[in-house]
Amino acid sequence: MPLDPRLTPARPDLADIVLEGRVKARRFVAGDARRVVVPSAPLRRAPSMESGIDTEAVLGDAVQVYEVRDGFTWVQLVHDGYVGYLTADSLGPADPAPTHRVAALRTFLYPAPDLKRPPRAHLGLGAALAVTGTEGDYLRVADGYVFAGHCRPIHEVEPDFAGTAERLVGAPYLWGGRTTLGLDCSGLVQLCLELAGRTCPRDADQQERALGEALPNDLADLRRGDLVFWRGHVGMMLDGTRLIHANGHHMAVAVEPLQTAVARILEKSYGPVTSVRRLPLTPSAGS
Fold this sequence. Notes:
SH3 type barrels; endopeptidase fold (from Nostoc punctiforme); 3 domains; five-stranded antiparallel beta sheet; 4 helices; 25 strands; 13% helix
């Protein structure tokens, strides 16, 4: 099968050394482990600030770096394999590994354990932190302090991924986004499933191929957490009749009757539903 270019660190001039013998490139290199050190970092298709955004990396995400040039790095994200360009100043050392994750929709990074101090940055749901200690109600990290009540140990999960999606109702739609400041349809699904401890690809077509088991495509007997796919779009069921999805019609994460969405999408955008998939009740690799 041909390699998916979204997930293949290979260009005519450079490729990951593990692909030697499978792709043609003038030079093969081993990736250099790094980690995202900013709240979020757009992963772009080309090394230019004008290039489109394919997805976002967030604080604590691990990456493999294959090239650094002119302020950009060519990388592969470890958690979903996506390949693209991040700015060089968005990355730092791979260690220490994260110990906690932001569980609130948003929180602030303070210069001191004091809520009256002006924050240095905001951090979104899912951002990963390497905690080095505590001071009162705050966790100490490399660049400051975060309110402990907004964080959880990194191994703790949110099993109700549909419930996580409900918390994001009203978050604005952003093509390529996967943070609480903006998400696209598959970014919403990926964020919610990863916080539930489930492996999830990035794009809707990848999710449709990889996640769960196919159900009859008659939209009957649906349950909370079922995923409904169109060609280029995905939403999640909150129950047997209501769909939650990040979409360009509302320009936000919104809840609406499934049949309303089906009719509108058929007429105006992605065509008919292509499949419905159900995830197992307990997470496993690729679920």
